[in-house]
TrEMBL record:
GO aspect biological process, one term: tRNA thio-modification
Function: Catalyzes the ATP-dependent 2-thiolation of cytidine in position 32 of tRNA, to form 2-thiocytidine (s(2)C32). The sulfur atoms are provided by the cysteine/cysteine desulfurase (IscS) system.
Signal peptide span: none
Superkingdom of this protein's organism: Bacteria
Protein name: tRNA-cytidine(32) 2-sulfurtransferase
Family indicated by similarity: Belongs to the TtcA family.
Keywords per UniProt: 4Fe-4S, ATP-binding, Cytoplasm, Iron, Iron-sulfur, Magnesium, Metal-binding, Nucleotide-binding, RNA-binding, Transferase, tRNA processing, tRNA-binding
Catalysed reaction equations from the record: cytidine(32) in tRNA + S-sulfanyl-L-cysteinyl-[cysteine desulfurase] + AH2 + ATP = 2-thiocytidine(32) in tRNA + L-cysteinyl-[cysteine desulfurase] + A + AMP + diphosphate + H(+)
SUPFAM superfamilies, A to Z: Adenine nucleotide alpha hydrolases-like
One Gene Ontology cellular component: cytoplasm
Gene from which the chain derives: ttcA
Presence of the UniProt keyword Nucleus in the record: no
Span of domain tRNA(Ile)-lysidine/2-thiocytidine synthase N-terminal: 39-201
Pathways involved: tRNA modification
């Protein structure tokens, strides 16, 4: 690589790093994900997302105005071919506290689930139990997962298309037994940024399909639909993600979220105003395109929607 090309690659990596760092910092602040004195257990699968999460959190730890510690945890589920030495090697090299938990959930899943059926739901239930137990043993106060913005959008569509619910992945949640707080600091980060960052940083990726199972055809279909939209309608993904943060219950039809039955002449005015006789006011330019973004928008064509 020439000197100029090297300098350009370094410049792009810095920009990417800054954007990811800003996204993680913003999510942490918006959802109060990490507090002073926290011990954050970062769940590391060996995929691009969790490597990026760990990397950015370690970096933020250096300059954060609060003190928190990090411990990386990997669960070796004894899937055939899992390269057990890759993560310990990497984690020792970067000098982070870590624990590898070995539990043969693979055999349990194979024994309980008939051949040909999807194994992911039992597998992830077992994994969750083990990770919660590990967090308790380590005294971790937060459990950080590597799901990102695109996982959240996909999940929302999966729930709408198949589950009949408008529901995504929470950026922060409390476990059913009330003992653990789970956070998703990559909530504002784009998968394509994570992908580029992971390649540039040369993380030692462990392929995610070692067990030979798939996380359902539906997720793949939704992923492809979103990728297609992203190509054909720049800004649409960003706009949808903004929409998920900007819900107007009085303009949906969920009777549990808004007291439609109780509306009377004395009710306060609707948040978005009275539009009973209006055509919806749809911006010509997707609002997501107007946000700070390095992606070129010059070739974009817009369709009049109103
Ligand atoms: S893909 Fe394999 S490891 Fe992942 S949840 Fe499914 S069964 Fe478990």
């Amino acid at each position: 690589m020439s000197h100029a090309a090297e300098a350009k690659a370094q410049y792009n990596l810095n920009k990417l790093h800054k954007r990811l760092r800003r996204g993680v910092g913003q999510a942490i602040a918006d959802f109060n994900m990490i507090e002073d004195g926290d011990k954050v257990m970062v769940c590391l699968s060996g995929g691009k997302d969790s490597y990026t999460l760990l990397d950015i959190l370690l970096n933020l730890q250096q300059s954060a105005p609060i003190q928190f510690s990090i411990v990386a945890v990997n669960l070796d589920q004894k899937q055939p071919g899992f390269p057990a030495d890759v993560l310990p090697g990497y984690l020792s090299q970067i000098g982070v506290d870590f624990k590898i938990v070995t539990e043969d959930t693979y055999s349990i899943v194979k024994e309980k689930i008939p051949e040909g059926k999807t194994t992911c739901s039992l597998c992830s239930r077992l994994r969750r139990g083990i990770l919660y137990r590990t967090a308790k043993e380590l005294g971790a106060t937060k459990i950080a997962l590597g799901h990102h913005r695109d996982d959240m959008i996909e999940t929302m569509f999966l729930n709408m298309f198949y589950g009949g619910k408008m529901k995504s992945m929470p950026a922060k949640l409390i476990s059913d037994n009330g003992e653990h707080i789970v956070i998703r600091p990559l909530a504002y980060c784009r998968e394509k940024d994570i992908e580029k960052y992971s390649v540039a940083r040369q993380f030692p990726i462990i392929p995610c399909n070692l067990c030979g199972s798939q996380d359902g055809l539906q997720r793949q279909v939704v992923k492809e639909m979103l990728q297609d939209w992203d190509k054909r309608f720049p800004g649409r993904i960003e706009t949808m993600f903004q929409a998920m943060q900007n819900i107007v219950p009085s303009h949906m039809i969920d009777k549990n979220l808004f007291d439609f039955a109780g509306i009377s002449k004395d009710s306060p005015l609707a948040v978005e105003g009275d539009m009973a006789f209006d055509k919806p006011d749809v911006p010509k330019v997707p609002v997501g395109l107007l946000q700070d973004d390095d992606e070129p928008a010059a070739s974009v064509q817009f369709v009049e929607l109103t």
